[in-house]
Design brief:
The two termini are 31 Å apart. Strands 4-14-13-12-11-10-6-5 form an eight-stranded parallel β-sheet. Strands 1-2-3 form a three-stranded antiparallel β-sheet. By secondary structure, the protein is α/β, with parallel strands linked by helices. The chain folds into two domains: 3-264, Queuine tRNA-ribosyltransferase-like (TIM Barrel, Alpha-Beta Barrel); 272-365, no CATH class. The protein is 41% helix and 20% strand. The protein has 15 helices and 16 strands.
Length: 376
């Protein structure tokens, strides 16, 4: 069984259930990023226990290492990685375009580039990307798209929209794994006319969900949220809406407020690996000497495995001594923080109190620093 059911709305904010072949996804949903079929440092059961219902894996990296055929022959991504819940795979297109100096050719047929692993020439086509994801056996497969940078010219943006639509028209009919769902991606950056055109063209195709790509790629947050405020409302009401690449706590609240159902980012686990914890006041850099004798948990309101048992002083000790447990505990905490925040947003939508929840939450988070890119 698959499909999306909207269960509550509060203004533009939405709560729902998205059914997939490997289980249901309560939305809004934050998707931890497991680029190479693992959320770094964590056991799959731990990822589930901190509240994740779906994870993301990267078709680009898995295509090259260990190879989609290997994953298929070992039972698909779920068996291979030990994660039994829903999995979304991106197309690999973002990695190609974020590594622009590797591109050799870009045209109607697809994109040819050099692998970051060995420099060998490779080509991604819509049909080829569909086949990679078919072999991986993910629950949700993203279409190949062209993701230009924020400073791209209007000509480049128009070309990206044209190619993204052309590739989507080919990939939407390509063979897929049993039960596999497929999402189309709208491009256009913050250019009103091109973004509307892309949404119209992608929405006309029979996808199971729709994503907004080409945002959170270097434009200001003001521009991004202004665009999102009207763009999200143009996406289908009865299918999931996916914002590609946001994971800072304030950003999560703002995209939910604009009607987004799903979002992902490496930020929580990447931040953990730098020795920092996400907390209501912003971040704690555990490398700072001020925490050397601090007996408090990372966050007084948190019930994650790190906060229930360990002090800031102990976790700082682990981090400064390069002990793996320190990075694991911070990863568990940071994922718990954003997943719990998302769950609270969902509950507020269901109660009809999202506006006050949003205001209260943003007032607590306002002191936090700007967040870095979500690209993996």
């Amino acid at each position: 069984m698959s499909g999306f059911t909207l269960t509550a709305t509060d203004g533009p904010a939405r709560a729902g259930i998205f059914e997939t072949a490997h289980g249901s996804i309560p939305t809004p949903a934050f998707m931890p990023v497991g680029t190479k079929a693992t959320v770094k440092t964590l056991h799959p059961d731990e990822v589930r226990e901190v509240g994740a219902s779906v994870v993301l894996a990267n078709a680009y990296h898995l295509h090259f290492r260990p190879g989609a055929d290997v994953v298929r022959d070992l039972g698909g991504l779920h068996a291979f990685s030990g994660w039994s819940g829903p999995i979304l795979t991106d197309s690999g297109g973002f990695q190609v375009f974020s590594l622009r100096d590797t591109i050799l050719a870009l045209d109607e047929s697809g994109v040819t580039f050099r692998s970051v692993y060995d420099g060998a020439q490779a080509t991604f086509t819509p049909e080829g990307v569909a086949d990679i994801q078919r072999k991986l056996g993910s629950d949700i497969a993203m279409c190949l798209d062209v993701c230009p940078p924020a400073d791209a010219s209007e000509h480049e943006l128009e070309r990206a929209v044209q190619l993204t639509t052309h590739w989507a028209e080919r990939q939407v009919t390509a063979q897929r794994a049993d039960g596999q769902l497929r999402f189309g991606i709208a491009q256009g950056s913050t250019h009103d006319e091109l973004r509307r055109r892309s949404i119209d063209e992608i929405s006309a195709l029979p996808f199971d969900g729709y994503a907004l790509g080409g945002l959170a790629v270097g434009e200001s947050k003001e521009e991004m949220f202004q665009c999102l405020s009207w763009a999200a409302a143009l996406l289908a009401q009865d299918k999931p809406r996916y914002f590609m690449g946001i994971g800072d706590p304030a950003g999560i609240i703002e995209v939910v407020a604009r009607g987004i159902d799903m979002f992902d980012c490496v930020l929580p686990t990447r931040t953990a690996r730098t020795g920092s914890a996400l907390v209501w006041d912003g971040r704690l850099n555990l490398r700072n000497a001020q925490y050397a004798k601090d007996p408090r948990p990372l966050d007084d309101d948190c019930r994650c495995p790190a906060c229930e048992r360990f002090s800031r002083a102990y976790i700082r000790h682990l981090v400064t001594q390069s002990e793996i447990l320190g990075l694991r505990l911070l990863s568990l905490h940071n994922l718990w923080f954003v997943l719990d925040l998302t769950a609270r947003a969902r509950a507020a939508i269901e109660r009809g109190t999202f506006a006050s929840f949003r205001a209260d939450t943003l007032s607590r988070l306002v002191r936090g620093p700007e967040e870095e890119s979500c690209s993996s």
